[in-house]
Amino acid sequence: MVSQTNERALEASIEKYLTGTCLEEQRGVREVVPFSQHHGYRLGQAGDFNARYAVDTRFLLQFLENTQEEEITRLKDRYDNWQTRILDRFDKLAKKYGTLHLLKRGLDIEDVHVHLMYPAPLASSSDRVKQNFEENIFSSTRQVRYSMTNTLEEIDMVLFLNGLPFATLELKNPWTGQTARYHGQKQYRQDRDTSQTLLQFGRCLVHMTLDTDEVYMTTKLAGQSTFFLPFNKGHNYGAGNPPNPDGHKTAYLWEEVFSRNSIANIIQHFVRLDGTSKLALNKRTLFFPRYHQLDVVRKLIAHTGEHGVGQSYLIQHSAGSGKSNSITWAAYQLIETYPIAANVPGAKGIEVPLFDSVIVVTDRRLLDKQLRENIRDFSEVKNIIAPAFKSADLKRSLEQGKKIIITTIQKFPFIIDGIEDMSDKRFAVVIDEAHGSQDGAAHGKMNQVMGRAAAEEPDQDPQDKILEAMQLRKMRGNASYFAFTATPKNSTLEKFGQPQSDGSFHPFHLYSMKQAIEEGFILDVLANYTTYRSYYEIQKSIEDNPLFDTAKAQKKLRAYVERHPQTIAAKAEIMLDHFIPQVINTKRLKGKAKGMVITQNIEAAIRYYQAISCVLASRGAPIKVLIAFSGTKEVDGIEYTEADMNGFAESETREYFDKDNYRLLVVANKYLTGFDQPKLSTMYVDKKLQGVLAVQALSRLNRSAPKLGKKTEDLFILDFFNSVDDIKAAFDPFYTATSLSQATDVNVLHELKDNLEEVGVFDWPDVEEFVALYFDNADAQKLSPIIDTSADRFNNELDLEDEGKADFKIKAKQFVKIYGQMASIMPYEVVAWEKLFWFLKFLIPKLKIKDKDADQIDALLESVDLSSYGLERVKLNHGIGLDETGSELDPTNPNPRGTHGGEDEKDPLDQIIQNFNERWFQGWEATPEEQRVKFLSIMKNIQDHPDFETKYRNNQDADNRALAFEKIFEEVMLERRRQDLELYRLVASDGAFKSSMQQSLRNLIG
User: How far apart are CA 401 and CA 385, in angstroms?
Assistant: First the structure.
């Protein structure tokens, strides 16, 4: 069969690269496999695999006899069944500790100890150590029959080290419609018996599924609950892999990752089993590095060995990148980094490690714990980690032979002093400054260290602390700096970035927010970002629609906007009007979803806490609210602290907030960075957010929570303070390929649905049948024919032009996007929309557009401005959206800045609206900001009218110009009547109103 041949060809290619031959060659089958080089693996035979022990017995026993003859002879002399003794002992210990433990520690059988692998040599290793490593037997076996109950069931490939499995591989071929992303994962989840020894947790280090485009991995097979991680390089700042000019996109897996040295390095220095041996094996977690983690650590080590001490590195890794593990892996391996030559800066000889000590600067307790656990797992010498809070601690730790020294951002200035004093020592300083302090108290402490009152810079960024500490002291060449951050400032880039030939600075390594979102490690917090004005307009469109019950509309919301009340009590009610029905009552995240209220200052936080508590009490809501701020604050003559208001110690706030009954947290300059709470799904913002703080604060929502089923649709941000443009400007330098949606008239969904149905790609009975099967948990094979039939109409039957196809797909994606966002806000249900939403989600991936601008169209779909899109296809690359390319930050302005006198410049538009309001406000129930937006929108529609340039702009006859403008104005207002019904009625019924509005617009346009 074609499918089997293609998969077999991929298997043969991998096997050929690993072993230099393949089964087809051994059997005399002629297959073109374009590799001559290979990794020195042995070609395994499926018949040598023992399913009971999950071991290739031939290679295990061969390795032991060849390398440890004396020990094996002792067992042979003692027992006739010595092979079974070895296998039984291995099986017993592997069930308790896992294969990783035995690969690293070896196997004890009575008084005999045997090694199960020899580690890769270091630069300082003896020739014997190097020879031992070469005696390891790496092997590859295809079509492994792993099951003792279903003896014909096979796994495509298994890779072994000395007969012990370290990777299983299921291969797919997208050319025949089989992908690793779907079919490979499904095969592991549904078709593989995880009770069999090979697939039991800890028996094999990693299980991978791959095709020619992508690789996915997991360390724990758990049926339908199996969680796969991508093991891809990334492409264009996003997910996937770049084209490979020499072969398949995924060839890096077998060409680079599966080399002998690479696998030995991964086993020795990366893979680790979390938790202690006191825990049952299946209760522990096995960590295998993702590709970018493996890549960054290896590149750091290689660059350091080549360029020596005195370098600076900026690693820009997004939230969701697994920075904690990357930092611990880097810190441990920097201890044993050797120079490639004696003349490398800072080298004391090619057999002496470059660094005397690695200093880790972090405020994360979790990182401290992980470092200790990693070193315990990796190192023979356990007691090599110590804390340091002053320069004397640093000196004492070095004298005691400590190799990893942990300090905090607050104490970093003292450590800098110690580094400078000990010029004969070499240091690697790893800085985890992206998260900063989680409790706000760090700000005051750092300012005291810097000799400054805490009140002067309450929002000093952790990056600024690090840079200031370094700038105040003359840095010497006896340290290298490795800074990990998700959001580098321009000053951070300049200090730690790699200088380019054009004078710019780039990160040493990048894992972008776009990639983290596309790979599913974090959620897109901007997908449902809504300013208060937008939220109001959405609600207003609901009220104005005769299909909906206006009694359900939130009248307090409208009253707030139209009267401009500034009271916190009013805003607190608005927050709870959303939070209780849309988050609590809908049981988001399995009833565990939480919200955060971000306030401008401590006084505002206290008042919000009191207002929310009062509303909750009056409504009898079964949830509680907490508050978080630092220090003591007097409000209305009463002194408050966080501990007094919450009823427990400040240090326990995080722990209490994790409990189910505490659902809202009100914060003032606290928990905005470094706070990981996956249950957070909703945020209410009443504080100016800009730059790095905006990204870090809003990103508190992006933590994924697969066990709670957390999706992008569960996130919601309601912002009372900032504009869409403010947030876009903040995210652009660090974030790509996403969009911020402005106010959306939900009635667009009716019109989109009508337009989609008119094309004839699907009939409504198709939608009904699909949804009925889908929600009845029908087999996917019953769903495919329905979707495939509609897809075939689109792709072939209807003979749609490319433009028509693009238009349909745009509208389909717009429907899914708009409904997905609005569903969390709308206080009603339209069943037809819900059904079409699910049908289109499955149909869209099968719609093929053979258009030269196809990629741009897909980019457009993620970046269009929904408020101006309506039913018109806007031009490509137009509309609000975050920059998909790398962003450049300007260097810090070196010029002194201060307050400038003089009157504020007034926007001419503001003046026009003010004059208009003085006379006509009584008739037009719209706020000044709404009027401003509508004026601009109408003005743009007029300027975009096909007759504007010829009949108005370039017309020299004043009378004809006036007539042309009036005609264009009337046509524009007629076109806009759906979205501005109130304004249209005024224009149509009041001649003076219409005349004044036309004159105002002409004054504005010129």
Answer: 9
- Do residues 527 and 738 lie in contact, with contact meaning Cβ atoms separated by under 8 Å? yes
Residue for token digits 């790609």?
Answer: 761
CB 518 within 8 A of CB 324: no
Q: β-pairing, 312-317 with 479-485?
A: parallel
Instruction: Give buried/exposed letters for 110-122 (b at 16+ CB in 10 A, else e).
Output: eebebbbbbbbbe
Beta strand extents in 71-220 (DSSP E only): 107-109, 112-114, 138-145, 154-161, 164-171, 206-210, 215-218
Give φ, ψ of 190 to 5 degrees: -110, -30
Please, which pLDDT band fits residue 321 given cuts at 50, 70 and 90?
Answer: confident
Which residues 6+ apart lie within 8 Å of 361 measured at CB?
A: 407, 408, 409, 412, 415, 429, 430, 431, 432, 433, 466
**Spatial contact of 246 and 179, defined as CB atoms under 8 Å apart:** no
pLDDT band at 433 (very low <50, low <70, confident <90, very high): low
Closest CA to 687 of 861, 532, 481: 532
pLDDT of residue 142: 95
Vertex 893: Cα angle to 892 and 899 (nearest 5): 130
Beta bridge partners of 498: 506
User: CA 193, 194, 196, 199 torsion: positive or negative?
Assistant: positive
163 neighbors 55 (Cβ within 8 angstroms): yes
- Cα-only R_g, the chain: 32
What pLDDT sits at residue 378? 60
CA dihedral (152, 156, 160, 165) positive or negative: negative
pLDDT at 508: 93
pLDDT band at 139 (very low <50, low <70, confident <90, very high): very high
**930, 877, 742, 738: which is closest to 818 by C-alpha?**
742
Structure tokens at 273: 């089993």
Angle at the Cα of 89 from the Cα atoms of 88 and 92, rounded to 5 degrees: 85
* Cα separations in angstroms, 706 against 207, 225, 236, 522, 679: 19, 9, 26, 11, 11
Residue 85 has pLDDT above 90, yes or no: yes
Token couple for 423? 């010029």
Cβ atoms within 10 Å of 749's Cβ, excluding its own: 21
Task: Yes or no: say if 711 and 528 are a contact pair by the CB < 8 Å rule.
Answer: no
Burial classification of residue 186, based on how many CB atoms lie within 10 Å of its CB (0-12 exposed, 13-18 middle, 19 or more buried): middle
74: helix, strand or coil: helix
Q: What is the mean pLDDT of residues 165-170?
A: 97
**Count of beta carbons in the 10 Å neighbourhood of residue 983:** 22
Q: What share of the chain is helix, strand, coil (3-state, %, to 5)?
A: 50, 15, 40
User: Tens digit of pLDDT for each residue in 237-257?
Assistant: 889 999 988 889 999 999 999
DSSP bridge pairs for 138: 161
75-80 mean pLDDT: 91
Q: What is the mean pLDDT of the chain?
A: 78
Per the CB < 8 A criterion, the answer to whether 216 and 231 are in contact is yes
Query: How buried is 205 (Cβ within 10 angstroms: 0-12 exposed, 13-18 middle, 19+ buried)?
Result: buried
> What would the DSSP string read from start to end of 701-725?
G-B--GGGT--GGG-EEEESS--HH
H/E segment holding residue 33: none
Strand order in the sheet with 206-210: 42-43, 138-145, 154-161, 164-171, 206-210, 215-218, 229-230
**pLDDT computed for residue 180 by the predictor:** 92
| Residue 931, amino acid | Q
- How many other CB atoms are there within 10 angstroms of residue 546's CB atom? 5
Mean pLDDT of 935-960: 82
Q: What is the pLDDT of residues 452-505, one digit of tens each?
A: 333 333 445 666 666 555 544 444 578 899 999 888 877 677 778 887 777 777
